[in-house]
Design a protein that fits this description.
This protein has 355 residues and is an alpha/beta fold. The protein is built from 16 helices and seven strands. Helix 2 crosses helix 4 and helix 3 packs across helix 4. The N terminus is likely disordered. It comes from Planomicrobium stackebrandtii. Its EC number is 2.7.-.-.
Length: 355
C-alpha cells in the first residue's frame, strides 16, 4: 500500500493489519501524562546515589508543568526522611575572586577525604531572554568528572536576588542521594547573598588581597553575613600582601556583629593554585559545625530557615494564583493602560484591582 493511501486510511480513522484485514479505528496517540512517571523508581535511584536519577529528580522539581510539580513534591516527600545529614556551605565573592577555582580545589580535596560533594551553582539568567550560560561544568572540568561529586548549574530564571527558587529543594535531593557536603555558589556580591545565607549553615566570603581598596565597593552587610573570609589567590607576589590583608580583616571584624551565634568570624589566606590554606578552610568548617551544633544554634537556624521558606512559598503561591486567573490578567492590562494614559493613579488602579 502506498504511503499516501495508508495515510488517508489512518486519517479516516481506519487502519489495516499486515494481512490486509481492516482493524478497529486507531486511537490518536497521546503523550504520556506526568502522572505515569514512576516516582518509586526515581526515589530508589536517588537513594542509591545515581547521578542520572538525581538529575532526573531535580529536573522534575524545576519543571513548570503542573503534573511534574505534583510528582516532584511527592518524590521530595518520600525522600525527606533521608535529608538533613550534610553541611550546607554558601560561597560568594567579589568578581575575579576565583570562586569556581576555589570550589573545584576544595571539592577535590573533600572527595579525596571520602566525602561526597554537591555543587549547586547559581547561574545568571538574561533579563531579556531568560537564557543562562550554565558554564560551571566547563569551569570545573576536573570536579565534574569526579564520581564522588555532582555539579548542577541552576539558572536564576528571574528569581529575586539571583537564586533559583528550587535551590532549597535541590539541596534536599542531594542530601537524600548521600552528598554530605553541599556547596552553593552565588553569582556575586549582591542581593543573592542574603537569600543564600538563608538556606545554608555556613557562609564563606572570598576576597582578594588589598582589603582597604576592595572594601570601598563592598557593602558592610555582606561582611556581616560571612562566617569566614578567605583571602584567595594568596600565592606568588600576593602571598605577603595576603597576610597583611588577613590582619586588616581581623581588625575590621572586631567592629561587626558575628554572623552566627557563638561563633567569631575569622579571616584566613588560601591559594587554590598552590593548594595552600585549603585544608585550613575545611578545618575551620569542621570547627564551626562542632561549635554551632553544641550551642544549639545549628538546629535553631535550620528551623528558622524552614519557617522563612514556608512563608516565602505562601507569597509565591499567592502571586501565582493571582496571575493565573485569565480575567484578572485582562483586568491588570486594562488598568495598566488607564494608568499609562493618566486616567487613573497607580493607587486607584490597585484599589480597583482588589475590589
Amino acid at each position: 500500500m502506498s504511503r499516501e493511501k495508508n495515510s488517508r486510511r489512518v486519517m479516516d480513522g481506519v487502519h489495516e493489519t499486515h494481512d490486509g484485514m481492516k482493524a478497529l479505528p486507531r486511537k490518536k496517540f497521546k503523550k504520556p501524562e506526568a502522572e505515569t512517571l514512576d516516582i518509586e523508581t526515581i526515589a530508589e535511584g536517588v537513594r542509591s546515589g545515581s547521578r542520572l536519577y538525581l538529575g532526573k529528580a531535580i529536573t522534575l522539581l524545576e519543571s513548570s508543568n503542573p503534573g511534574h510539580k505534583q510528582n516532584g513534591q511527592q518524590l521530595l516527600n518520600q525522600l525527606l526522611p533521608f535529608t538533613g545529614n550534610s553541611i550546607r556551605i554558601g560561597i560568594t565573592g567579589v568578581p575575579g575572586a576565583g570562586k569556581s577555582t576555589f570550589i573545584e580545589t576544595f571539592g577535590e580535596m573533600l572527595t579525596g577525604l571520602g566525602h561526597r560533594v554537591a555543587v549547586l551553582a547559581i547561574d545568571p539568567s538574561s533579563s531579556l531572554t531568560g537564557g543562562s550560560i550554565l558554564g560551571d561544568k566547563t569551569r570545573m572540568e576536573q570536579l565534574a568528572r569526579n564520581p564522588r561529586a555532582f555539579i548542577r548549574p541552576s539558572p536564576t530564571a528571574g528569581t529575586l536576588g539571583g537564586v533559583h527558587k528550587k535551590t532549597r529543594e535541590t539541596m534536599l535531593l542531594c542530601e537524600a542521594a548521600g552528598y554530605d557536603v553541599i556547596l552553593v555558589e552565588t553569582v556575586g556580591v549582591g542581593q543573592s547573598e542574603t537569600l543564600v545565607r538563608g538556606m545554608v549553615d555556613m557562609f564563606l566570603l572570598l576576597v582578594l588581597t588589598g582589603a582597604g581598596d576592595e572594601l570601598q565597593g563592598m557593602k558592610k552587610g555582606i561582611l556581616e553575613l560571612a562566617d569566614a573570609i578567605v583571602v584567595h589567590k594568596a600565592d606568588g607576589d600576593n602571598a605577603r600582601l595576603a597576610k597583611k590583608t588577613v590582619a586588616e580583616y581581623k581588625q575590621m571584624l572586631h567592629f561587626l556583629q558575628p554572623a552566627s551565634e557563638g561563633w567569631t568570624t575569622r579571616p584566613l589566606a588560601a591559594s587554590s593554585l598552590e593548594n595552600s590554606g585549603i585544608p585550613d578552610v575545611w578545618e575551620m568548617v569542621q570547627e564551626f559545625e562542632t561549635t554551632v551544633k553544641s550551642s544549639g544554634y545549628w538546629k535553631k537556624r535550620r528551623q528558622k530557615q524552614t519557617q522563612d521558606w514556608f512563608r516565602s512559598m505562601i507569597t509565591d503561591e499567592l502571586h501565582s494564583r493571582f496571575f493565573d486567573d485569565p480575567e484578572r490578567r485582562q483586568l491588570v492590562k486594562s488598568l495598566e493602560k488607564q494608568v499609562l494614559d493618566d486616567r487613573l493613579t497607580v493607587a486607584q488602579a490597585i484599589a480597583r484591582l482588589f475590589e
